[in-house]
Design goal:
mainly alpha; 603 residues; Serine Threonine Protein Phosphatase 5, Tetratricopeptide repeat; elongated
Amino acid sequence: MKRLYVFLLLTLICVTKLLAQNNDLLLARQYAANGEEQKALDIYQKLFKQDNEAYYQQYFNSLVNFKKFDEAESITKKMLRKYPGNNEYTIALGSVYTQQGNTAKADELYDNLIKNMPADQGAISAIASQFYQNANADYAIRIFLQGRKLLHNDAAFAFELITLYRYKRDKAALTEEYLNFLPTNPVFVTQAEGTLAAVYEGPEDYDMLKAALLRRIQKDPQQVVYTNLLIWQFIQQKDYDMAINQALALSRRQNSDGSDIFDLCRTLVAAEAYDAAIRGYEYIISQGNKADQNYISAKIELINTKNLKVTSGQYVQADLLGLEKDYNDLLNEIGRNRGTVFAMQKLANLQAFKLHKLKDAQTLLESAIAIPGVRPALVAACKLDLADVYLLNNQPWDATLLYSQVEKDNPNTAVAQDAMLRNAKMAYYTGDFNWARRQLDILKAATTQLIANDALNLSLLITDNLNADSSGNALKIYARADLLIFAGQTEKALLTLDSIDKKYPGNALEADILMAKARIMIQQKNYPNAVVLLKNIAENHSYDLWADDAVFMLGDIYETKLNDATIAKTYYQKIITDYPGSLWLNDARKRFRLLRGDKNDAS
């Protein structure tokens, strides 16, 4: 019984002591958090005297923070005498020497540690980890590299070294490590691309990667991962022709099914490298047959890409005729059915708005709508396009009936609002301004922001100009010019816009005419002329309806087309400061912050 009493008493004493130490430790941490470092140091010193091993690190860190290096050296040497084989204390002592400016003494310690390091992978990792925790990434790297020699394994510690090189932003070493690692671990190529993209800062870094890849490809031309990385490098450099060249050469060597080319073409299309993508799709088609899924998909995507090229303004007349032929060839080969209605719709748009073959477009859309089993959304889209063609073909009554039909068949949807907006625009084009304005005022509350914005702008345009000229004569000519722009007849539109001032000098449409011309210039990729027109609006019509639009458009052109981030920032800043009620405010703020270099800005 007496022994049990003694045991319980000793246990109680130990628990009481442990609780007291824990309370002291919490108090020290609180002092440190409050900036009372000396009080924290005093407590750590007391705890260290009670239990060297348990409280060494806290006491050591506190001494170093106070720059009491002599005391930190003293307690560390004490621990080394007690535990001479403990690398943690050796590394800590070296860090004290380093902070005292005695790097030679620290290096001597570390070099001796490396010389006596065991050929054990776990021990090597532990030592390197201790160096890294002491903010000594250089020696952690040396530990891993020496570890490779000890283990006779050049592939060991690849992940650890990649992490350290990335931390140090050692681009050359990181690149070489990945190039050594990826041939036996190709599943990590996407991770490698993301890491390199995050570390590389300019063209010279990608040039370094290209040179390293070309050297390795020369030695080992069968290593596919190097060629794939080279293709990725060309894409990052926006050298799209070289990217597709490499990909096609690789596909021919491997006699592949074209899936990799197909994926690359999607990337090229997203980058608006339409010509390079077209070459890729044409290669797949040349290698396939009708039974091959890639063949059909490539045929469709080839036409879609050519269509994107045309609609982006990067075309000549021969491109339009070639695209029309491609659509017709596809429809003749696969047939006009519910699976090809999408192609019929795109061909009709090409014929109506680029080739101005209104009768052909009308016939094609009417036949598309008549095909049974087509998705309702696609039928509605074809009907809206057909109504547009009726409008261009001088059949306004047929157009308004079809717009109204789509609106009625799709109640409370974005499709219905789109139909209503097109109907209102038709009234505006044909000079029925009051009816158009009534419809537009309803659409100001549309759930689709783009439709609501368009409705608001057009409503204000009509109201402002009718207030200035109740007859609306100048506005009627402007509306006709707008219709010509919609129809793709930009040269006629420009002549019509120029005629307004001649017929009605002093009209209220000056800023509107400038904006219409600016949009034509942007459509034609004539950015310098667009800038001149938009600056005229921003500087001379700063209180006009189009002022904030012009300022934002200038920012966008300088940022995305003229590659002048400095000027772009000034225009985005102008939106923020001068037009706080602008619909462009959030976009301008976001772009400004990104150009300023703010990281992870999601606002």
